Amino acid sequence: MNRDRLRALLDAVRRGETDTEAALETLARLPFVDTPSARVDTHRSLRQGLPEVVFGPGKTAEQIAEIAAALRRAEQNVLVTRITPEVATEVCAKLPGCEHDPKGRLLWFGPGEVPLQGAGSIAVVSAGTADLPVAAEAAGVAHRFGNKVETLHDVGVAGLHRLLASSELLRSARVIIVVAGMEGALPSVVGGLVDKPVIAVPTSVGYGASFGGVAALLGMLTSCASNVTVVNIDNGFGAAYVATLINRL
Amino acid sequence: MNRDRLRALLDAVRRGETDTEAALETLARLPFVDTPSARVDTHRSLRQGLPEVVFGPGKTAEQIAEIAAALRRAEQNVLVTRITPEVATEVCAKLPGCEHDPKGRLLWFGPGEVPLQGAGSIAVVSAGTADLPVAAEAAGVAHRFGNKVETLHDVGVAGLHRLLASSELLRSARVIIVVAGMEGALPSVVGGLVDKPVIAVPTSVGYGASFGGVAALLGMLTSCASNVTVVNIDNGFGAAYVATLINRL
Amino acid sequence: MNRDRLRALLDAVRRGETDTEAALETLARLPFVDTPSARVDTHRSLRQGLPEVVFGPGKTAEQIAEIAAALRRAEQNVLVTRITPEVATEVCAKLPGCEHDPKGRLLWFGPGEVPLQGAGSIAVVSAGTADLPVAAEAAGVAHRFGNKVETLHDVGVAGLHRLLASSELLRSARVIIVVAGMEGALPSVVGGLVDKPVIAVPTSVGYGASFGGVAALLGMLTSCASNVTVVNIDNGFGAAYVATLINRL
Amino acid sequence: MNRDRLRALLDAVRRGETDTEAALETLARLPFVDTPSARVDTHRSLRQGLPEVVFGPGKTAEQIAEIAAALRRAEQNVLVTRITPEVATEVCAKLPGCEHDPKGRLLWFGPGEVPLQGAGSIAVVSAGTADLPVAAEAAGVAHRFGNKVETLHDVGVAGLHRLLASSELLRSARVIIVVAGMEGALPSVVGGLVDKPVIAVPTSVGYGASFGGVAALLGMLTSCASNVTVVNIDNGFGAAYVATLINRL
Amino acid sequence: MNRDRLRALLDAVRRGETDTEAALETLARLPFVDTPSARVDTHRSLRQGLPEVVFGPGKTAEQIAEIAAALRRAEQNVLVTRITPEVATEVCAKLPGCEHDPKGRLLWFGPGEVPLQGAGSIAVVSAGTADLPVAAEAAGVAHRFGNKVETLHDVGVAGLHRLLASSELLRSARVIIVVAGMEGALPSVVGGLVDKPVIAVPTSVGYGASFGGVAALLGMLTSCASNVTVVNIDNGFGAAYVATLINRL
Amino acid sequence: MNRDRLRALLDAVRRGETDTEAALETLARLPFVDTPSARVDTHRSLRQGLPEVVFGPGKTAEQIAEIAAALRRAEQNVLVTRITPEVATEVCAKLPGCEHDPKGRLLWFGPGEVPLQGAGSIAVVSAGTADLPVAAEAAGVAHRFGNKVETLHDVGVAGLHRLLASSELLRSARVIIVVAGMEGALPSVVGGLVDKPVIAVPTSVGYGASFGGVAALLGMLTSCASNVTVVNIDNGFGAAYVATLINRL
Amino acid sequence: MNRDRLRALLDAVRRGETDTEAALETLARLPFVDTPSARVDTHRSLRQGLPEVVFGPGKTAEQIAEIAAALRRAEQNVLVTRITPEVATEVCAKLPGCEHDPKGRLLWFGPGEVPLQGAGSIAVVSAGTADLPVAAEAAGVAHRFGNKVETLHDVGVAGLHRLLASSELLRSARVIIVVAGMEGALPSVVGGLVDKPVIAVPTSVGYGASFGGVAALLGMLTSCASNVTVVNIDNGFGAAYVATLINRL
Amino acid sequence: MNRDRLRALLDAVRRGETDTEAALETLARLPFVDTPSARVDTHRSLRQGLPEVVFGPGKTAEQIAEIAAALRRAEQNVLVTRITPEVATEVCAKLPGCEHDPKGRLLWFGPGEVPLQGAGSIAVVSAGTADLPVAAEAAGVAHRFGNKVETLHDVGVAGLHRLLASSELLRSARVIIVVAGMEGALPSVVGGLVDKPVIAVPTSVGYGASFGGVAALLGMLTSCASNVTVVNIDNGFGAAYVATLINRL
After folding, report:
1. What is the pTM (predicted TM-score) of this model?
2. Which one of C208, D72, D134, D201 counts the least CB within 10 Å of its CB?
3. Partner-chain residue, chosen from B119, B239, B245, that has the shortest CB–CB distance to A195
C-alpha cells in the first residue's frame, strides 16, 4: 500500500464513505504484508516512497518469488539484493516483470524508469576491479531509489592521475560513495578533494593481512579526512540507502 | 584569509589595482598559515566558511596558543578539540577572546553567536551518563559550525520509555548523531524511528568485553537499521563535521 | 534407566528381594550406557528427568542410530541436536519411533506429548528471519524438556512497534530467551521491558563486521540491561537447558 | 517513590481526595528523580522492590552524594558499586547513614538488615585469591538485594579436593555464581556437580595470554556444562542481579 | 642409515678397509635423503633412533609413496601423519609393508612391534568424543616411538566422577598428554591430580566462541596448574614427540 | 608440615600413642595453612618436597609476611615470585631469614643451599637483554627447587655465532628453558640443536606488532621444531616448575 | 606502448611529421589500454620497462586472455600471477605465445629470455616444502623482471646446518627474499648472516596458532634483525617487485 | 674495533710482529665488548662501518653511559635511540662528547659530520604532525649512518596538493621512507608516484580503531602499490637501517 491509496482511504473516512471499524481493520494490517516465509514490514516504504528491499542470501528462489509476489500484490516495488545468477533466473521464471542486474547482483520489480527525486547526484567511486561488484550494488540500488548516479571506477590511490582527472565529477556530486578493499585509502583521498559527505564502503577484497576487509574497514574509520563515515564491509546497499536519504534532504 | 578577502583581491587584480605577480605571491601563500609548530592548511576553511580546527592532544598550551594566534591574525575562527581544563586555562591566559566549553572539551576563538547556516537542526542523542563528554563534543562542534542543535541524553535502550517520549524531537531533526558505548544499540533503535541519516559514534565507555569501544563499534557497523553510518570510536568531532555538511545541503 | 526404575530397584533391596551384590552391580553400571561409538553418561538425566541429548555434528547416521538405540533400550528419551535433513532421514529409517523437527534441526525419540513440568512459560524471541533456526532449536528443546513455550519472531530493534505490540507476551513469561545476530541489541531492549531473567543467544548471522557472531556476542555481554546473561554463539540448546532449570525452580 | 506511596496516591484519586490533574503531574514525574548530575530512572526499582544502584567509576564523591541524597529523599534504598576507599570515605562524610563494604567495593544506604525475599540461597564460589573482589561484589549485592548468600573461596580446579569437600553447599543453593579468572574452568566443574543454573563471571585476573579476562570469558562461553550462562568480565553486580531475579521466581 | 650402519662405516675406516675419501663421500650425503619431491633430513633420526616423520597434508599419494620408499631404502622406519583414508589406501597400494591407523590418521612403515624404550608409560587423556582424532594421533605416535601408552577418553570436566575413577592410571604415568577442545579445562584438573609433567593439546573442536581452538589454547596457557605446558592446536604429534623425549630421560 | 612430620604422626597412631580422633583432626587440617589473607594449600608441597610458592603481585608486604610466617611455622620453605624491590625490603624487615634475588624478583625463606635432586642440569637460555628478568626468574626458581642450573644469555637468533659457540652447554642439559620476546624464534633454533625437551617462555618484551608477547607466543606455538612446548607469556616460574618435574624423573 | 614507440612519436612531432592534435590524441590515450573487462594502466610499465602484471584470482580465462591480448597488441610483455592450472590451460589455448610456470602459478607472454638488468642477483630462500609455491612465485617474477635469481629451499631454522652450508650463496646476493610460514623465524636468522636488505614474505602455511600466516607475519615484523622489511602474507610477487627495484639501483 | 685496526692486526701477524696466539686472543674477544650491563656484539659494525646502536628504553642513564663508554674505548661511534630528555641529560653529564637530538630522541657519540657514503639520498616523508617523532628518528638515524637525507612533513593524503607539490623531491630520492599513523594511506600514494623502493613505517598515532598502529600497519601491508615494504609500528630506526643498506648498494 502506498501513500496515494492511504490518502484515499483517509478521505473516504472523512467523507463518511468508509466506516471507522472497516478503516481501522485496514490500517491495523497495513504495515505488514504476510507471506508464507516472512512477515514484511511495509511501514518504512510507506513513509519514504522507497521500494521494499529483500536481502537475498539464505532465501530460495521460491521464497523470494513468494515474498516479491505478495509485495507486488500490495502495489509495492521490490528490490532483491545479493542474488546469484542461478536464483535470479529461477525467480524471473516464476514471477514476470523482473529485471536482473547481474553486476550489482540485484533483481528489480518495478517501473523501468524510476522518477528522479533527490536534489543532486550520487557519485559511486571504486578503487580496483575487484571492488566492482560492491560498487555496482551501490550504484544499482541508488538508481532504483530514484537518484541520478555517476560512476568512476579503477581509480586506486596508487595511480592518482586517474582520480585527479575526474575531480570535476566528484565535486559536482551531492554525496559520494567510495568503495575500496585492501588498504581502503581511497575515501581519505576523495574526502580531501571534496566538501561533501563521503560514505566509505570497505570491501572484503584482498588476501593475507586484509583479513576479509578488516584492513580497509580500520583504515576508513581512522581516515584523516573529516567528512568520511563508514558502513559495514561489502555493504553497498547500506551506503546507497543513506546516500539516498541525504540526497533527498 | 576568508572568502571576502579573497574576492577583494581578485577584484583588485581585475581592476588592475594589484599586479599579477603580487597577487600570485599572495595566492601562493594563501592556503597555508605557518606557525612555529605547524603549517596549518586553511584551504578547506576557505572553501567551506568553517572555522579552523586544532586537535588538542599532544600539543602544549604554548603551541596551541601560537597556532591559534597565527590563525586569528589570518582572520580565521579557531576551534580547539579534546582540550584538558589545565591546558585550556593556560591557553586562555595567553590569548584573549577565548571561550572554554569544559563538557565538550572545546576551546573557541570566534564570535559568541555563530550565524545559523544549515537548513534544519542536528539532534545529538546519547545513551548513558558516561557517553556525555563525546556527545558534548559533537554538540559543541555542531553549534560552533553554525547549526541549530537539539540534545537528548540518558536514553539508553534498556529504558525505551525515555527515548519514545522524545521521538518528536528525533523526527524533527534533519540529521541525527547518536552516541553510545557498551553494546552500542541506540543507533539501531533511533534509526528505526526516523527516516533521516543517522551518524553513529561508538564510545570507549564500558569495561571487560566492551574492549575500549570495539563492542559498540561492531554493533553499529552491523546495525539492522539501514540509515546508519559510523565514525571512529569517541569521534564526536567527525560526526558533527559530517552532520554539518549534510545540514548545509 | 529413569528415576522410577531406580526407585523400584532400591525398594527391592530394602524388601530383601534383590541382594546387595546384584543391586551393586546394576548401580555401578548405571550412569553409563556403552555404545559402539561412545560411552553415554546418563547420570544427569537420572537426576533431572531430562531426556538424553546427543550432539549431532560429526556423527554418522549409523552412529546416531546406535547411540539412540542403546539409550532407548535403557528406557531413556533421546533428543538429537543440529541434525541435517539427510542424516535425519537416514536415522529415522534405521530406528522407528523418531520425530523430526527440521526447523529446529532436532530429532526426537520419546512420547509425542511431554508432560509440562515448569512453573511458568519460556518465551523465545528472535530478531530477524535468519535467526529462526537458532530460535527454533531453543524452542524445540524447551518443548521436549517439558516447558510451555511462547515464540515471537521478526521483532528486530529497528522496528520497535512490532516488539512493543507483544510486550504482554514477554511480561507473562517466567524466563525469556532472546536470539539475535548482527548487532545483537534485542536482549538489551527486551531486558529493559521485563523483570525476568533474559538468556541471550548471539547468532552467527550477518556478514563483514559481524565476524561470525562476535559483534552480537560482545553486544550482549556489554548489555546495559542488568538482567541479561549470555551463552555461546548459536547455542540455542544451552539457552533452553538453562531456561528449563530456571523454570523448574 | 515506592509501591506503598504509589498505592496511597491512587487510592486518594479513587476516593476523590486528589484531583486527576494533580495526580497526573505526580505520576508524570514519577519514574525520574532529577539530580544535578543525572536523571535517575526509578521505574525498575518501583516494579521490583530493589534498591537503586549507582555505578561508581567516573563519578566524584560529590556527585555520588548528590545522587544518593536525592534518592534517599525519594525514599529509595541506594547501593553504590565499584567505589574506591577514598571516594567512599568522602561520600560517607557528606551523607550520613552509609555503610561501606570495602572488600565488595560497595556503599549502602538502607536498612542494616534487608528482609530475605528469595525462595532459597545464592552460592558465590570463586577460584583464586585474586578473584575475591569480584566475588565479594557479587555476594555483597546479592545480600543487599535480600538474598541468603553462601560463599566458597579458593576452590580452583587444580585443587579439586577443596571443591569436592564443599559439594553439599553447592547442591543446597538455588542458583550459583561462579567467579574465576585465568582459564575460567571452575564454572564447568561446578556445573557438572549441580543441577541448578550457574552464572559464570570471568575476571580480569591473570597475565599474558589471559588478555584481561578474555581467556576466562571464552572458556566459560564454550563450557562443556550445559547449565552455564555468562556475564561480562568482572561483572559481579550483573551476576547477583540475575541470580536475585531467579531466586525470587 | 641408522646408527648401526654408521658405526660399521666408521669401524671400516678405522680398520683401513674403507679409504677416507669414500667414507667422506658417504658421510657428506648422509643426513639427507633426496626424493623427487623433497630432501629429507635424516639427521635427527640418526641421533634419536626415532622413525622419520612425514607430514601428510598437501602431499599426493604419489609423493608420499616416493618419500617413504626412499627412506625405506635408507633403512629408516617411516611414520606419515594426518593422512586421509583415501590417500592412505593409495599409498598402501603403491608401497608394501604399510600399516594404516585410521583413527590416528597415521601410516606406518616399520616393524609391527616397536621395542619399548622409555622408562615408564605415557597417558593420553581426552575430554570429549570429538577430541578423539587428536588423542588417537598422540597415542599412535607415542606407540610407534616405542613408548608404553595408556589412554583414557571421555573424561570431560563436567563429569568429574569419570576422571576421578581413573586417577590411579594418571598417577602411574611418567608423563601425561591431555587433549581437550572447547574450554580446554581438563589439563588444569589433571595437572592438579598428578605431580608429573602434563602436555596440553588444545583441539579445534567446538563452535562459536571456541574460535577454532583459541578458547582451549588460551585456557591451557593460563592454567592455574603449574605443571602444564602447551603445544599448538590439534598438534597431537608434537605432544607425543616431547612426551617421548621426556619418557626416555 | 612436611613428609617427616607426617610419617611421625602416622607412626604414633600405629603405636597407639595418638588416638584416631586426634590424628584425624590433625590430618583434616593438614593440607591447608590458614593465614589472615589466604588459605594456603600445602598438599602439593607435601607430595613433592618443593617449597611453597607465593605469587607476589596484588599482595601487600604485610600480607606476604603473614603468609610466609604461617608457612614457616608449618616448617615449609617459602618462595615469593614477582616481588618488587620495595615490597621485598618491607617483607625482609618484618620476617627474618629472607634472601632477596632482585634480578629474578624472588624472595626466599629456606636453607641457603638447597640439596640437588634432579638427575641432570637445566639450561636457561635467553635471547636479548630485555628478556633477562624472566630468564632470571626461571633460573632462580629452578635453583631453589634443587636443580643444577646453567645459564646462557644474549644469544638472539640474529647473531647465531654466539649461540653455536655454546652448543655444548645446550647439549649437556637434561631439559632446556628458552626465554625470548619479539619474534620468539630462539626455541626453534635451540630445538633444532638438541634432542631434549625445550620449554619455551615468550616474554612481553618488544613494541608494536609484538603485542605484549603475542608475536613470540604464536611463533613458539607454531615452531617447526617438534621438541618445543610453551608456557604463558613471562611465565618463567611455570617453565622452571615443569623443568624441575622433568629433571626429577 | 613502450619507450621506443613513444620516442618515435615525439620525434615525428618535432620533425612536423605528426601534427600536434593527432599526437595529443595518441598521448592522451597512452597510459590506458582499454579491454572489455578492465582499463589497464600502462604508465608504470612505460616508466620502468617492466612487463604488465595481471592478478589472476577472480578473473575468468576469457577475461585474462582478453586483457593479455590487448596488452600484446600494445606491444607490452604480460605476466599473469596466481593462475590455476585449469585457467592457464584455457588461456594458453586462446592466446598463442604463452609460457606456463605451474610451480610459481605464473603465465608469461614475452620473450623466452628476458635480458638481465640489475647489478647483482636476488636470492630467494624458503623454509619448508609447503612454502615452495610462494617462493616459486617470487623467483619466477624476479626472473621475468630481468634479474639473476638464486634459490635455496628447505632451510628451516630447526635445521641450521643446511642454511649455514649455503651462507656463501646468501652473502653473494644483492638482495634476499626470505619466504617462511609457521613461526616465520628464517628472516631473522638470514638477516643476521648478511648485510644486505632482506625482504620477508610470511606464508599462510601452518595450522592452529599460525592463524593463516599471522604468526609468521608478526614474527617478521618484530624481527630482531634490523635489515628485514616485510610484505603481505603470501605476497611473493610484491617481494620480487621491490627486490627488482633495489637490484636496479 | 674498526676495520682499520683489524687490518693492522692482520698485517702485524703476516709480518710476524704479532705471534699467532696473541692475535688469536685478540680476535676471539673481538666481536664482543663486555660492559657491566651487557655484552655488545660489534661484529656487524665491523663489517658495515656503521656505528653501534643502543636501544634506550629499559636502560638507566648509568647503564647507557657505561655501554657507550665501553664502545667509545673500543673506538666505535655510538647511537642511542628512543632516549627521553631526562635520561639524555644525565648521560651527557656522565660522558662527554655527546650530541642530543630531542626530536628524534637520539643521542650521538661520534664525529659531528659523518662522511656521506650512499649513492643517492633518502627521503623521509610523514603524514601528520603527530608522526613527526618517528620521522625524526628515521631521518636522524639515516643522517648518522652517512646518508644524504631529505624530509617532507605534513603531507597527509587528505590534502594531496601539498604532496603533489613536492613530487620532484620524491622522485629524486634513491629510497623513500614513509611514516604515517591513522589509516596509513600515505605509502600507497607515494608508492604510486615513484619507481623506487618505499619503506613504510606505521605509527601508533591515532585513537579508537587505529588500535595503537594496527590500522596503519594493516593498510601498509595490503597496499595497492607494489613497491612498498613494511617495518614494525614506530620503527623509524629499522626503516633507516634498511634504507641505508639499499642506498649503499
Report:
1. 0.90
2. D72
3. B245
